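Hi P.,

Sorry for the delay on this. The queue was packed all week, but I finally got your sequence through. Input first:
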Amino acid sequence: MFEVVVAVPTFRRPRSLARLLEALEKIETAARVVVVVADNDAERHEGYDLCLALRERYRWPLDFAIVPERGIAQVRNVLVERSLSYRNAGFVAMLDDDEWPSPHWLDEFLRVQQQTGADALQGSILFEFASAPKSWAAGFDGMSSIRRPTGPVEMIEGAGNLLLTRSCLESLQAPWFDPAFALTGGEDRDFFERLAQAGKRFAWADEARAHTIVPASRTGLKWTLARAYRIGNCDMRIFLKHRPRLFARTKEYAKIALALLLSPVLLFILAAVPNRAADVLRRLFRNLGKIAALLGRHYNEYAVTHGE
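Then the structure:
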């Protein structure tokens, strides 16, 4: 029988965390499960208090801690360390506190892992919207469900809805997630890049589905452009961290320069087509984020919490 630790980072989303913990109680699995929650709010510790209230009557063993140092990488590192302390656990699953799993989520992950032998797997994430986004937002990150066909993939997309083998985590030295990405995000992409460099294999499990609700505050143009800027900023920081060769640097800088030159022209031409113009703006803000990273500037997207 498999033993799996389900690791959940949380920060000031007690209602979302309660929904996630309730859904975990309802999953249908033959695996032994332990749930570990790390609350990154030492001041209000609402997530910690919720776990304390649930512990005695919860279906699964429930372990929880407060992580006083702010940062998503810091919380994930505590979760990994705590998860690995369960010596019989062969797998660590990760869900963000604004997600919740479908009933067969865990068994589907384990089935695909056995089929593919992958070291790290991601499941599909189905989006529900508190307020329907405009049609122009379709091409933006975070504006549509994340799905791929089941099977091996070259890379996975984020730390939400993951399954990692114990050996995969033990093969890397701590910290598993780079604390330099504390409030900016990007710690997951950097983690996956390091796994790829270590020769680890990735897979997608479409039926290992999680759900999330996108709050209205994350569907407006201002937030979507800020998100594009942050992604570009983090992508460039990760690119530079892994010390690309001169050819790769030159190619990346040329792409940025071309985007900056073409964006004003394309915006003028496409002004009457909102969907196309919005996509040009998205690409422009991504490249502006990259330039900011080249200048040593970071964008702390996760200094603000969305949802509750």
